[in-house]
Amino acid sequence: MYIWEQMTREELQSVSQKDSLVVITIGAMEQHGPHLPVNTDNLIVKEIAERSIKKANETIPIVLGPNIPFGFSPHHFIYAGTISLSVQTLITVLKEVVEGVTKSGFTKIFILNSHGGNDEMIRLAAKEISFEKDIQIGAASYWSLMGNCFDILREKHQSYNVGHAGQFETSLVLAIAEQLVRYDLILQGKKGREIFDLTFSSVVTSKPEKIWRQMDGYSDEPWKAKKELGESVLTFISDVISEEWITFYNES
Questions:
Q1: Neighbours of 187 (CB within 10 A)
Q2: Residue 152: how many CB atoms within 10 A of its CB?
Q3: How many Å apart are CA 50 and CA 23, to the nearest integer?
Q4: Is 206 helix (H, G, I), strand (E, B) or coil?
Q5: CA 174, CA 90: separation in Å to the nearest integer?
Q6: pLDDT of residue 8
Q7: In what order do the strands lie in the sheet with 2-3?
Q8: 172 SS3 class
Q9: Helix (H, G, I), strand (E, B), or coil: what is residue 221?
Q10: 8-to-3, 11, 13, 14, 209 alpha-carbon distances in Å
Q11: Of 102, 107, 124, 220, which is the most buried if we count CB atoms within 10 A?
Q12: Cβ atoms of 102 and 135 closer than 8 Å
């Protein structure tokens, strides 16, 4: 598998001449409850990208590009560990990272996101770039590519939606880096905490600080997380995304 940061300049030049697709990932650095690391979104997006690229690479030339570790997360500032970029800064960073990739000779680029707060920005950045440059560019959050996966998972595992640091994301981290999950803190919870099943609406909304405090910074019931659920999601979504990238590549 081609990995951007592990390659030399000559290797990258050679790969660009194969008309390779570059996948840029973006996550966030923000609180994920008392039981998951602040790097959770980056762990998830890089794992999904790696698995998807390994499958797509059997059909198309594809490169795991750089990861942007910070996103738009001001709604999490009420807890320690959160680092956020402004909307304007994030769009500029996305555009300038893409600019660097194109200057290395690549003309097919896909931005894959794993943080809800970034969703509008990655699509706006891609739209602006598409008008400014003669390249093929796509952008999507991984959950928007999952199709009927949620229905299948709910039936098989009685699972919640993606949420935030709840059952879904905790299951993914169990499958990716189990040693980083603080089991004792999941079970401990917070007295009087309210449970929310967060969903990503097509309408731009905000979650008031009061709600995040009521949730103690995490949605639904992470103590119901299962490594099996995490592995199922990773297998299913990497199958779907790899096919998405093959289709995207062949659209040019």
A1: 10
A2: 14
A3: 10
A4: coil
A5: 29
A6: 98
A7: 2-3, 62-68, 21-26, 108-113, 136-141
A8: helix
A9: coil
A10: 10, 5, 9, 10, 45
A11: 220
A12: yes
Q: Which helix (H) or strand (E) covers residue 61, if one does?
A: none
Question: Which strand (E) or helix (H) includes residue 26?
Answer: strand 21-26
How is residue 164 written in tokens? Answer: 């935030």
Q: How far apart are CA 179 and CA 176, in angstroms?
A: 9
Residue-by-residue pLDDT tens, the chain, 252 positions: 999 999 999 999 999 999 999 999 999 999 999 999 999 999 999 999 999 999 999 999 999 999 999 999 999 999 999 999 999 999 999 999 999 999 999 999 999 999 999 999 999 999 999 999 999 999 999 999 987 777 777 777 777 788 899 999 999 999 999 999 998 888 766 666 777 656 555 555 566 667 888 888 998 889 999 999 999 999 999 999 999 999 999 987
Find the distance separating the first CA and the last CA of the chain, reported in whole Å. 23
DSSP state at residue 215: H
Sorted by sequence, the CB contacts under 8 Å of residue 12 that are 6+ apart come out as 4, 104, 105
Please give the Cα distance from 62 to 53 (Å, whole number). 7
Q: What is the pLDDT of residue 196?
A: 65
Give me the pLDDT at residue 97, please: 98
Q: Which domains, from first to last, does the chain contain?
A: 2-250 (3.40.50.10310)
Distance CA 216, CA 102 (A): 42
Torsion of CA 169, 148, 45, 67, to 10 degrees: -150
198: Cβ–Cβ under 8 A, 6 or more apart, which residues? 161, 162, 163, 164, 166, 207, 219, 220
